[in-house]
Design brief:
The protein folds into two domains: 197 residues, Ribosomal Protein S5, domain 2; 172 residues, 2-Layer Sandwich (Alpha-Beta Plaits). The chain contains eleven helices and 13 strands. Helix 3 crosses helix 5 and helix 4 packs antiparallel against helix 5. The protein has 385 residues and is α+β, with helices and mostly antiparallel strands.
Length: 385
């Protein structure tokens, strides 16, 4: 599969630049549960998928680097040692990686590259993290920087935080770089301790349904939510609690201080604290093969994201409401930053076709477009091909 997907961009590279390039790929990710907890130092449960961002790349002695965005039929040239102040939106993710490496004293020479991705943009599958991760991994290898996977993860996150301007947590990049096939990653985003959890799906599948919608609120409200969470942490500091993030606050403590916190901030904090608990409960349920309990935790996660964190939207809510009564659906929730993107549902294999048919019909009737559906297959993290 990777070979056939690489063939077009390899041919494009050879036609444009010639030479003997290297090839790398990094996956998108799903997140089974644990939404908006990563930048609060909490727990998440992502996994890499078999949709990837791929790059064909080689160093050059030319005075400028050239990167070709194959899918957009665009290219951008720049000097890797004097990054430009302006660039296309897609190029900012790549320049951000180079910038973060430079801040670590790592010298990046100029290079030529062609990249392509089959990760849907705006679907909540972390296409941007995959782009950052594959270039971080490729440049590290190309220029022998000797950075380990953990540092490459931090570099990819820093690129998005400081260069792109989205104050995301570390989960997306961590999954893209550390993923293993047939396993999820239980990650503590405070300590970055993690363990692999086997995904024994047995007679179940992970169904992703893409709303086809990305509301304009997504990026701005993401940063607002982070600020709101930090306000709650500040309030607890003022009350004498030794906390660094919402991860350090228990539900009991939150309830004890509820009269000192505005109703809005209380709701934001309640989502994060309860979501951390759900991640740990979900892992336990999954390991015990208790799919019914795991499914109820998915629904609870969605309702918390909808009601307390206010990052859902009509389209996401409709999808979750539509699948809930269907035979074979174990659980469902919105996935990703919110205001559009995908839902993730656990569905019995035998019922998959009927579920997809019902969802497609209902969604098209209500919103006038047919949703795209994917069966999430797991994949490995960033690697050379």
């Amino acid at each position: 599969m990777s070979e056939s997907l690489f063939s077009s961009i390899t041919a494009s590279f050879l036609d444009r630049f010639g030479g003997s390039p290297a090839r790398f790929q990094s996956p998108g990710r799903i997140n089974l549960i644990g939404e908006h907890t990563d930048y609060n130092g909490g727990f998440v449960l992502p996994a890499g998928i078999d949709l990837c961002c791929r790059v064909v790349i080689a160093p050059t002695q030319e005075a400028r680097s050239v990167v070709v965005a194959f899918d957009l039929n665009e290219e951008f040239s720049f000097d890797a040692n004097a990054l430009p102040a302006q660039c296309p939106t897609w190029a900012a993710y790549i320049l951000g990686v180079i910038h973060a490496m430079g801040k670590r004293g790592k010298i990046i020479g100029n290079f030529q590259a062609v990249f392509s991705s089959d990760i849907p943009i705006g679907a909540g599958l972390s296409s941007s993290a995959a782009l950052e991760s594959v270039f971080a991994f490729a440049l590290n290898d190309l220029f022998r920087l000797q950075l380990d996977r953990m540092e490459l993860t931090r570099i990819a996150q820093q690129a998005e935080n400081e260069y792109v301007g989205l104050q995301c947590g570390i989960m997306d990049m961590f999954a893209s770089i550390h993923a293993r096939k047939d396993q999820a990653i239980q990650l503590d985003c405070h300590t970055l301790d993690f363990r692999y959890v086997p995904l024994h799906m047995n007679d179940h599948l992970m169904l992703l349904v893409d709303t086809g919608i990305k509301h304009e609120l997504a990026s701005s409200e993401y940063n607002v939510r982070r600020q709101e969470c930090e306000e709650v942490v500040g309030l607890f500091h003022d009350l004498g609690y030794a906390v660094q993030s919402l991860r350090d606050i228990t539900m009991q403590q939150l309830e004890m201080q509820r009269d000192r916190i505005s109703p809005l901030l209380l709701k934001r904090a309640r989502h994060v604290v309860s979501e951390n608990e759900r991640v740990l409960e979900f892992v336990k349920s999954m390991q015990e093969g208790d799919w019914q309990s795991a499914g109820q935790l998915l629904y609870a996660s969605h309702y918390s994201l909808r009601d307390d964190y206010a990052v859902s939207c009509n389209e996401l809510d409709f999808l979750v409401k539509t699948v809930k009564p269907l035979n074979g659906v174990i659980g469902s929730r919105m996935m990703g930053g919110g205001f559009g993107g995908c839902t993730i549902s656990i569905v019995e294999k035998s019922c998959l076709e009927a579920v997809m048919e019902a969802v497609n019909f209902a969604y098209q009737e209500s919103f006038g477009i047919a949703p795209k559906s994917y069966i999430a297959q797991t994949g490995n993290g960033a690697c050379a091909i």
